[in-house]
Amino acid sequence: MAKRQPNEADFMQRALQLAARGQGRVEPNPMVGCVIVSRGRVVGEGYHRRFGGPHAEIEALRRCRTKPRGATVYVTLEPCCHSGKTAPCTAALIEAGVGRVVAAMRDPNPPVAGRGLRKLRAAGVQVAVGLLAEQAAELNAPYLKLVRKKRPWVILKWAQSLDGKIATRMGDSKWISDERCRAHAHRVRARVDAILVGRRTVLTDDPQLTARAAPVRRVATRVVLDTRLRTPTTAKLVRNARTTPTWIICGARAPRSRAKALEAAGCEVHVVRRDGGGLSLPAVLDLLGSHGMTNVLVEGGGEVLGGFIDQRLADELHVYVAPRLIGGSDAVSAVGGTGPDTLREALRLPKSTSLKHLGEGWFARARFR
Question: Which one is catalytic: 8, 27, 57, 303?
Fold first, then answer.
């Protein structure tokens, strides 16, 4: 049987695969892949590897095995047309003499936002947009949310028993999940901009909230929601705040003396408005987004997780399920908050939710957008 010749979708799929290699870089830029095709053959490919480094199009042009004049360029996002850390990709493509550019989607970032495509057309380069656009948008969903809504992508994460408990009635929670699940969770920590918990989690577990036993691609900022600044200066994450960024977010009425003590220990103290009895979670996300944070991992406790679910502020869900039953009416449940009045109002997981064996248990992952 004759081997099938690759088509345009195959070339764009390859570009998406390359783009995914950029996951976890330390900046809010998108993941972009590029494939250059001449006479039906791939002659060059590349992806954006690091902040300040060459963009995907430049990488692909440099790696071309033949001159790209007249070639078709498949790129997962509209080429940039402005100078920043690097020169504009549109200028490089025009100078190389490529004949056609196929972009999976337009870049909503205001400095680009269609201008790159217009510059290419004005230079006589054929342009097409929309090939595998849904896949490209899913790959860059956190970046797109930050650009459009000025808020980070919110991942809720917890480990629980099969009956939904995260600790016994005496508060024992170490360890519900096994080593493989914990290693997986640390790899996720190593790819996010912030790890967020409530004050009770700090008091109960005294966590470090760092990525251990994993290649650290980002150093996440630890974020503690603490309305009245009751986080002790003896907490582990306060004691090493000078080496790992640590934010304590509080309300306007928090004691200034406590803020000074935490700041003296190396923490940053930020004030947001209150909403009822606690801090406004939308205001917290606005604050994180204003500092360019693309992904935030919310690790608890139950009331914080419940608040994000009640207000439909979660974008993604990571749940590690251990093959054990804890039981007990006083045992700690994974999700608190108010909850719905009826089942009809309950948050329904999308059909795309995945469940796979991991270690001795299972890992469930869902995306809500």
Answer: 57
